[in-house]
Every structure is written in structure tokens, then in C-alpha cells.
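Feature request, filed as a ticket because there's no other form

It would be nice if the structure record came with a short human-readable summary line next to the C-alpha cells. Right now we just get the raw output. Example of a typical job, pasted below so the devs can see what we mean:
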Amino acid sequence: MKKWLFVLLAACPVWSQVAKKQLTEADYGLWSTLEQVQLSEDGRWACYTLTYESGVDTLMVKSTRTDKTYSFAGGTEGRFAANGHFVFRNPDGAVVLVNLKLGTQSQFPNSGQYRLALGGRLLVLLENVGTTAGDLLVVAMDGKVLKRIPKASLFSMNPAGSQLVCDYEGQLLLLDLNRVEQPQLIDVKPQIYQGIVWQANGASLAYLTEGAEAYVGFYQLAEKKHYVFDRNQFKDFPKDGELYHASVTELSVSDDGQRVFFGVKPKQPSQDTGGVQLWNTADKLPYPRKRAINGWNDRVKLAVWQPLTQQLRMVTSVRFPYQELLAGQQLALVYDPMAHEPQFDYDAPVDFYLQDVATGAERLVLEKHSPDRTKMGISVQGNYIAYFKDKDWWVYDIKTAAHHNLTASLGSSFTDPLYDRSGDVQVCGIAGWTPNDDAVLVYDAYDIWSLKTNGSGADRLTKGRETSTVFRVVPPKAYETVGSRSDNGLDLNNGLVLRAVSPSKSGYFNWTPKNGATPIVFESNRISAITKTANGVYAFLREHYHLSPQLVVQHPGGNQMLVYQSNTQQQHYDWGFSKRISYENSKGQLLHGALFYPAGYDADKSYPMVVYIYERLSQYYNEYVNPSLRNQDGFNISNLTSQGYFVLLPDIAYEEGKTGQSAVECVTAAVNEVVAHESVDKKRIGLVGHSFGGYETNFIVTQTNIFAAAVSGSGFADSISCYLSVGDGNLKQETWRYESNQLRMGVPLFDAFDRYLQNSPVTYTPKVKTPLLLWSGTKDNSVNYRQSLEFHLALRRLGKPNILLLYEGGGHSLTKAEHQVDLTRRMSQWWDYYLKGGPKPDWLTPDTF
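Raw output as currently delivered:
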């Protein structure tokens, strides 16, 4: 019998009748989270991290064939090197090189950036960072320092890991790692450098300096030619512009080494309004967003410099402030997201133009297309743009400027059938492209399709629809070992790794043109985080609600080995279990829910239940949950099951214009199903939701009294006031939430005023009889805390009991530990009082003056 099966049985509540302890707050700190799994390239070692809420984390390395284990308390940034070596950073900042065979270590104190080079045979790092004697070290796997370059602060390695450039006393040195004793000086003018990047093939590099006289440099290695960008030579360089290194305009070299891209940040005077805000309904944007954008004048612009011909031009501008470079970097997709404002969706449709970055010539590719990037993608070689339009996938052939419909003849839908929000449909998305651009891979609800870009045909690669199994491509860079990662497309001849989820199972499959999809692992547990090696060794995580995550390694042939079982202390405590339930709404739609049973469940007893709601949550029935006081919304399934509660997460299906009513109907149907078949006391059921779930909770308690108590966090309460407001985070008018998104009104307020009122909790405040606990953060940029305050004040005016907790400085979800702990404890006390008849918390007692 396989070793992991023993652990699975040990974690199951029916395995043993040995008396177990009840879980308490004092025990929560014992639980850890298993994450960041890696395999060495030969598959002989696995690395993983155990994180604790106390912050005392542990980095682990374990043999996949024996019990040999290394434990590094507080270790981070772990990476496997060649020949059985491992590198990590310890808590005091030292980089540590470990020989896993012998257990010997070499430490390099006060280290900054580090990289592995020459296929993991060398370690390159910056030592003594922050001192006057910072050094760049090149280290062999035996710990011997092969080269030390003093007074260095940064370095950059070429894509092959065979050469690097570093600064040395304000100058740039080029170092061939195969001949470390012969560094070459590149830039002799002392500077402070803030960025160094390489051409994709390593033939050239570019760098950016800092300071008032900052400049961009370019160096060709074979020719040993050095070019410096002089802004004063170019009239097109923005007046008073500053060279700027930012994520949206990263320094880069084109694949052919002919162009260097960098950012330019315009200097703009401060906006002086004279203390007066001017709001105009004819403006493209509401005043707060208009002021923040400032006509795109403040946005960093992308420049392209051609060092060999000494030409410069701006790729982006006020007219086209956004861009995406295509493969080869000769063309850019440019656009202005505000061109079709004003409008009242979340984002306006976009006109996409192709721009020749050298000449500036432009052509319109897509007009008024959705800005949703799941509906659009650029091919690997930059020959095609795929886009979703009128229920079909199309491609735009860049060379011929022709549009081709790829799916019109298939008779299949590529939209998400479960997406029931207002507004545009949601597509299942693009999986990727083949390396030579001859096909684009797209998803339908279940399967993966290969669509020939020349329109010659399409193939369904998987057969998920027949078994209700959803197949999705796992990108190679997400699972392959370091050194074999590639962004060069999905080569079908090399096969694919697929993620698979059915109503009762999850796991991974191998797909090949010959055999189709064959399972790697596919079972009733939740399987996640797969990684693999070139020699066919896999590692993945296995869990279920009753089974704390396991790290499992599967060797060629399918033989599995349990490498690590997390949270073995669970076996000493009563623990719940879960199942997936089914029920129907009034339209006969089959819905599901995740039901979690109380720890130490006894079918002869009657239990209280807490119902947590959002939209569709049944997929979490097999997810393990650590008990914790650190919960961003105060809700924790394992806390509740250990305290003797059933927990239900029901699915909700919506009818447009009846959002609140849909929630009432589906939630009550789910509750009735559970009450009819489980040991749940129907007089002791609580309801809780956060954000949109908070809105649903607010509405449900105005329509039914089946809940003994409820908790609503950061929820909407007044459809009218919210609709006629501007979001604090995105600075957009909140109309989009109602007309074309989650609140599902589908039409403007003034076309269906009654519809808005009928779905607004505040409208029915007089009907509220359920004790309701409201909470929000005063810095919530998603749902303004005034929505909760408004509901509280409505209840106050009607003389109805209500508690509102406002967490000062708290966001939409609480991130401060003290806020998380406070809310979790108060919610526990709330449920204990209203659902178990426990003592009344002091904070429920009103003030007495």
C-alpha cells in the first residue's frame, strides 16, 4: 500500500476512536501553510516552505527517495543549483550555499541580489551590501570564491547565464563567467547605475544611469562598440523630460539589437485649481478621475532610440498613452482607453492601432473593441492578433491586414455559461499560441481548441464536455524546473500539462497529439501546484477539508511518495469533514453547495449552522482551511466547525434585475435542503457575507426571518446613493456596478427606478428583525464605508438594534493583524450569543450617560 494512503486515513475522522481534544484559540498557532514547492532538476530533492502566522517560517529541503531532510528556520529565496547543491537566504541576510549530499555550508554575509550561472554551476552575489566595501562574488559550488570585484552595487546576467555586467567604482565591467580573470571595461565615465538589460541573444546590452546628467548607454559585445544617448541631440525628446525606469516603460533592447526602449517622465507643474473643483457633465470623466489622469500629461512615455543610426522617437504620447510591443519590437499596439468617454461601463471600448515604432506610421486594427484582455491576444511571433467579437474568435493577419473568423463554422460557444452578471459576456479565454503562430489555442466551457490562424480548420484537443471535466493549460514556466522555462509558445509536439477539474475530482493530465489527455493524477482530493522535471518526476500538493496539504512526488511509472505531511497535529484534535450538496431554485436550476460538518460530529445531536455567501462557492468543498484568528473578513470555516457549527457555502444563480431576490431564493433553498437532511437546528442558523456577499446579507435579512443572526462586511446598502457616487479607489462613477456588472440591474437607474429600489436593502429597512452586525474599514476603496453607515443609521432611526464596527484605516479586507483578530473574535462571540445561547458580549451593551 502506498505510504500516502496511511496519512490520508489517519486524517479522516472515521479512522480512529481515540479520544481527541477540542481545538481552541491557543492551538491555532500550531498550524502552518505548505507552499512554494520546487524540484531539483534531477528530481532527487524537493524544496518547500512552511509559513506560520507568527512569522517564524521554515524553508525545507527533502530527498524524494529517502528521509534525508534539511530545515532552515527563517530561510527564503531557496533555489536548487547543479550537482546536488542548494542556495538560500537566511534571516540575517546571508546567502548560504549548501552541499545536500554532504551537508556542508558556505555563508556570505550581508548579501543582496544573487543569481545562479552556467546552468547552476556558479553562484553570483553581492556581498556586504550597505557598507562601503560591497563586493560582487563569483563562487563555485564548493564555496570557493573565484572572483571578487569590490565596490559593486548591481549586476545583470545575460540570458544564457554565461556573462554578466556589474558596476565597479561607478564604471561598468563585463565579465565572462567562463574566464572570470579577464573582466572588460565598458563605461569609463563614473556613474550611478539603476538598470542593466540584455538583448535576448546576449549580443548587446543597455544601461540607465541616475542623477541630473542621467543617460542611456548601449554596448555591442562582438563589435566592442559603445553608444551613449544624448538627449540634447534630439528635438523630439520631451522638454524637461526625465529618464525614468518604470514597470510600464522598462528599459529593454529589441531582439535584433537595433533599438533601445526606455521611459521618459515629463516634468509637470502642480495643478492649481484655486481651491475650486469644476465638475462638468460634458467632461469625458468625473472630476476626481479627470484630475488624476491630467490628460495623460503625467504618465511616463515610452521612447525608442536607434543607437546605430542615432534616431529617436516617442512611441507613446498624450494621444496614445498605452502600448504593448509585439514580438521583434518593430511594431507596437497603441491606444487611448479614454477615447470613447464619456460612457458608464467600467471601461470604455478601445480603438487599437498598430504603430511602426521606427517611423510612427499607424493603422487602425480594431475599432471600439472590448478592453478586456481575455478577449484579445498577440501571437508569439507577432504575426497575428486574436480577438473575440460577435460570439466568435477572429484573427487579424498583420502582414495582409485581413480579418478572419476562425470559429463561425464550429457551432460551439466560447463564453462562460456560468457568468450571469449584467453587461458583456465573459469568454473562457486564450490558452496560448503555437511557436510558429500557425494556431491559437482557446477554451470553451470544458475543452481546449486549436484554431488554425489561416482559417483552414480547428481541432478540439480534449474531451472534457463528455465527462463534465474542465481542462486548462498549465503554462510551462509555471511547472518546469528552473533553466527549462520558456515563453516561446505551446509546442503541441512536445505535449502539454493540463489542469483538470470535474464535479468530484481534480488533478493534472499529460496531453500528446498521439494519446490525447492521459491522467498524471486525478482524484477526489484537491490537487494543485504541480511541478515537473525533464526526466519525468512530478511534485504536487494533495488536500481535502479533512486532509491537511501533503507534498507528493510521483516518479516515472506512477509510483508516488509522500514527501511531507503538513499539520500532523490535526490527528490529536476533533476535526470536521465536508461534502458537496445539490439543490434546485424555483426555475429548476441545479445548484451546489459546500457543506462542512462540525468537529466530532454526532448524527444524534442538533447543531447550529453558519451560512457564508457570495456568488458560487461550492468548489471550495475540498479545500483545507487552517484555523486562525488572522482572517481578513473575520470568517474561518475551521474555527467554526471546531466550535460545533455546520458551515454552508451555497451557490447562487441570478436573474437580471432581481439580484437580491435571486440571492434570497437560492440561499433559502440551500438552507432548506440542509435542514431537511442534516442535524441542523433551523432556529439556530446564522448568515454572513463580505463585499457583494455583504450586500446579499443586507438584502436577505430584509426579506426573511429564517436566520437567527447575521454579519455583513463592507456591503452595499443603498442602490440609489451608491449608483450616484464616485468610487474612492478607481475614481469612476459607480454606474458600472449596476448597469453592467455584479449588481446586475442591466439598465440605467432612470430607466428602471423601481428595479433599483426593489433590490436596495435600505428600501426594506422596516422589515429587518434579524440581529445584524455590520463592519467596514474607513479606508475601503472598493465599497465606501458610508454604505454600511447608511444602513446602520436607517436601523437606528427605526429603533432597531444594530452594531456597526468601523475599523479606522482598514481597507475593503482587513490587513492589520489587530483588526483581523478583533473582528474574528467579535464574530465568534456574536455567533456564540445568538446561535448557542452563550453569554452576551460586553460590547453589545449600549452606553449609559
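Something like this underneath would help us a lot:
The two ends are 70 Å apart (CA to CA).
The first helix runs from residue 3 to 11.
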